[in-house]
Amino acid sequence: MSNTEQSVGIVTAQSADFSTPLELACGVALSPYCLKYETYGELNAAKSNAVLICHALSGHHHVAGRYADDDKSAGWWDNMIGPGKPIDTRYFFVVGVNNLGGCHGSSGPASLNPATGQPWGSTFPLMTVPDWVCAQARLADRLGIDRWAAVIGGSLGGMQALQWSIDFPERVAHALVIASAPKLSAQNIAFNDVARQAILSDPEFHGGDFYAHGVVPRRGLRLARMLGHITYLSDDGMGEKFGRMLRSGEFKFGYDVEFEIESYLRYQGDKFSDMFDANTYLLMTKALDYFDPAKSYDDDLVAALRRSRSRYLVASFTSDWRFSPLRSRELVRALVAADRPVSYGEIESTHGHDAFLMLDPPYVRLMRSYLAGVAAEVRA
To answer: Which residue numbers mark the site Important for acyl-CoA specificity (predicted)?
Structure first.
């Protein structure tokens, strides 16, 4: 961290409870429900400097800062948010939300269904990106925010930023869509289904009601994360970090861990299975699959984007094959055709899809430059 960059410091999560039913795309009216969120910086008198951070599949509301009882609990985008950082809390009031269906405090499969007093489990409804955006809009209303200075997200978070700009065109000044796509490819849907099948076929899944059995479908969740993690990295990045290194320096002629990359993936799978909920993983990947804002506009993305009144920053990374630059360029072309102002950055990186979480200097410069312009608008 440079001398001009600081952490937002110790933060505290907050809860917002809602009793008005939320009509979901699946036909269910969810009520009551809770959203867990955090804020950083100060909302100005005009309430014009608010920035919403939308999280990706495994993300949550704890975006920046640390908790008082844990020095290692840095937010998942702490390197991007804070005084002097690209999302500068000297100028912006930043809001992070754990989406409905999550497993970090918002209502989700592991939380108690007030009607039964038992975990929702398999009965928690499937969610879509528009459902999340509607829930986030209600939180914005609660916070007195009529219009976001910017809505920002990477991957699944970028999809939410894009949906915000279409569904609530008057409430988003800037949408930053990073390492994302206007809809998933068939290959991406296939990866998600294989990951889900790993969970669904785990004997300890119990049809999603494993809470009542006092078990966790750890094997399935572990495999799902290992598969997903492979797609978040690049071949060059894995080769540079692990290559074909053997842990012992020689073949063991067995099926236990021999290569360093195997050790790394198993570690990531074990860690993830200790802190994430299997039902949430299923729900989040399905929301990814369903995302397609053009669907409601006769499959015409340009027509969907013509509703927007936002300015856009679209960013991609050269080594990201899960959400490749081709998909970002597809979105940029549609924005141009819809006569929407858009800036595009294609960043050289070896970090694969995970690059949106990293600090590649060209990426940081792009974010800092664009958001400095947003901050200047807020201060004007």
So the answer is: 322
